[in-house]
Design goal:
32% helix; 2 domains; Urease, subunit C, domain 1; TIM Barrel
Amino acid sequence: MRITSQVTAVCVALAFALAASAQNLLITNARILDGTGTDIETGYVLIKGGRIAAVRSGAAPVGGPAIDARGMTVMAGFIDAHRHLIRGDSTAWLKDHARESMASYLDAGFTTVFSMGDDPKGILELRRRLNSGEIPGPTLYAASIIPLSMPLPRPAAAQPPGGFTDPARNDPARPPNRPTTAPPAIPDDAVRAMVRTAKGQGFDALKTFMLATPGGPEGHTLSVIVDEAHKLDLRVFTHATAVEDALAAVNAHVDVLAHTPHIGRLEEDESARQTLLNAHVPMVSTLAVFIPHFDAQNHPLFRDGGPFPMPGPLASGGQGPVNARILWEGGMTYAYGTDTQWDPKDSLSDELRALSAVFSPRDIVRIMGPNAAAAIGRSADVGTIETGKTADLVILAGNPLDDVFNLTRVAVVVKHGKVLVDHRSRR
């Protein structure tokens, strides 16, 4: 994971910013994209007690700490609804990399991040440090992984060249790799106990992996998980990369599809399209997993840092955006998420490349703001700039409606009314 040189400077400044920045703040002379579809060409945002007190056009009132955002754009803080944060041993990562990594999220404009599968002990400890203020960073939510079946015995496989073992390189959901044998079921009581354990540990949501087998238990088990989770006020996210698996997931009444299904052609399956739309389940993008990430030497890389595998993932890189746009046209709540471990600013650039194939800049602003907030169940607090909401904001040195890559030009980040990143002196 590459951490930019700028992040080091941010780390040094964060402690000062936390102490010195008040929760009352006025942002003036700003272009405001509030996320509801309203654009204010020149206006102000008033923050009191860490929440948005007013959003209006025209001249701002005088008094109090202020940021002059003339020539800049204010948006709601970015949300990544599908991320992996910890690499390697979690104890070592927390000691050596956590502070620097969390600063990189703020530096890229992300004020909210949802972990979709990290070491359980490590991610809960990271969330504790963030919530206590021990480490400055985004608001973190974490999902616990619950299996849908007992594992089947697998023959020993040779280590792939280079040691790159990312399962998405050879997705078992893609024919001819799909399993044809149903695995053993997990007893319902044991499934419900796992859900209750995750709640007791303090997780915010559950994540499952749907790979439907002929006559297999996956659909039933997922419905049991959803039933128990909803009793405990937990959301259920489901990994489903093939259209048939996404259908199995929505039939079990999951809350969120953690990926865009990129195996299967929705333009050829009207019944599947309608079933997905009628379920009214938000979907997270993660499109950039299946397009190359280019390093400084212009080498195409996969998300595990190895050479980009051809042709399966690349075919998904084309089909994913097609399926996404088809569902968008039908009214799908489509949200931003990356499912990567690249530096957050690099991941943002990659996801913007993929999204831009089928979405306009205005669409992408909606995907990153209110839709991402809806996917994680936090629309009441974040995702738009509206009176009463948490003052998580990003100020950009440019207008993303003119050029969507202006979303990467972060000048200031405000979290809970506090200025945590300020790059204006570098402009």
